[in-house]
Specification:
Blueprint: H1 9-23, H2 35-40, H3 47-50, E1 65-67, E2 75-81, H4 83-86, H5 89-99, E3 102-106, E4 118-119, H6 130-143, E5 148-152, E6 171-172, H7 181-201, E7 205-209, H8 219-226, H9 233-240, E8 242-243, H10 244-250, H11 252-261, E9 267-269, H12 273-276, E10 281-282, E11 285-286, E12 289-290, H13 300-304, H14 307-315
Parallel strand pairs: 2-3, 2-5, 5-7, 7-9
Antiparallel strand pairs: 1-3, 4-6, 8-10, 11-12
Helix pairs in contact: 5-14, 7-11, 8-9
Length: 322
């Protein structure tokens, strides 16, 4: 009788390691993440309702979403921007409830909320026209008694190559311009100046929110690695988080442009780096909560860290020139 082939235990372990390296580990091989961690990787609840609304730039109605919709007060502030603004919608809801105010929100993916600039690489402008939406928001603010405008975006997405690749979500001062970092930065700088000037002329208070730190790994990967053992998970998450110096380098150009645009009480830069970063790293999260949905966007738990500062901004005395 032919006996089945057997291997010593150490040999079997070695063969398993080789098989996993070649074929990949089965889906259940990694640690089981807690429901709270897993939920962080889901999109915001109101994404479909409030963001990337087709023809928001020209449809007569239903192009804006209410912030703190249960409030009886008229909307008095605007949240506007790309997908990074969407990630803060829940935080603004909470802050508005604390401050006793309501607002409105809209935005398009990959559309920088700056006046006078045009996307150079996007084929979707008939449906989601970035430049037209920026103009429409300015007009809405001028006619609606809005007191505060919050601009939120992944600013380096329009001024630098994406994550070490050759892709640039280029913008220009006119359609059809050269696609290059140099030209995109020129348009960005002029767009910031024009946007600040236009909103300042309306007498509103403009709040510019610099981008949050961009992580090096997808949070799912980071947590799968870090949670292999509970002991030491916090230290492993820290080791997998982006260095603060790298974050500072990525937002250096946009930050220098914003710094030149600040003037008096009319323009405020709301930098939240200290909520996520110490002197060395910008944390991706803790063993109990991921601050990120993906490498670039905050999760609900991450955005919630901004609520106290947003509530203070909404509670502050508004401009008196209107």
């Amino acid at each position: 009788m032919k006996l089945p082939l057997r291997f010593p235990r150490t040999a079997r372990a070695g063969l398993l390691a080789v098989a996993l390296a070649v074929c990949g580990a089965p889906a259940h091989a990694g640690p089981s993440l807690s429901p709270a961690i897993a939920k962080a990787f889901e999109p915001p609840e109101r994404s479909a309702e409030c963001f990337d609304i087709a023809h928001a730039h020209d449809k007569p109605e239903a192009w804006l979403c209410r912030i703190n919709p249960s409030s009886r007060t008229a909307p008095s502030f605007v949240l506007f921007g790309d997908s990074h603004a969407l990630q803060l919608l829940g935080a603004f809801d909470a802050a508005a409830r604390q401050a006793g105010r309501s607002g409105v929100f809209t935005g398009y993916s990959g559309c920088v909320p700056l006046l006078g600039v045009y996307p150079l690489t996007r084929p979707d402008q008939a449906v989601r026209n970035c430049a037209a939406l920026n103009l429409r928001m300015l007009d809405h603010v001028g006619r609606s008694g809005i007191k505060d405008v919050f601009l939120v975006a992944k600013w380096s997405y329009y001024t630098d190559m994406w994550q070490g690749t050759s892709y640039l979500n280029a913008i220009g001062l006119a359609p059809g311009e050269e696609v290059s970092v140099r030209n995109s930065r020129r348009a960005f700088e002029q767009g910031v100046l024009d946007t600040v000037k236009a909103y300042r002329a309306l007498g509103v208070r403009l709040h510019i929110v610099p981008q949050v730190p961009q992580q090096m790994l997808a949070p799912e990967q980071a947590y799968t690695r870090a949670m292999l053992e509970q002991d030491g998970a916090a230290a492993r998450l820290r080791a997998l988080s982006v260095p603060r110096a790298r974050h500072a380098q990525l937002q250096a150009f946009a930050g220098s442009v914003f710094a030149r645009a600040v003037g008096g009480d009319a323009v405020r830069i709301m930098n939240f780096d200290d909520l996520f970063c110490d002197a060395e790293v910008c944390l991706i999260g803790t063993p109990a909560a991921s601050y990120y949905q993906d490498p670039s966007h905050l999760s609900g738990d991450g955005a919630a860290r901004l609520v106290p500062a947003l509530a203070r901004a909404l509670s502050a005395k508004g401009p008196t020139s209107r």
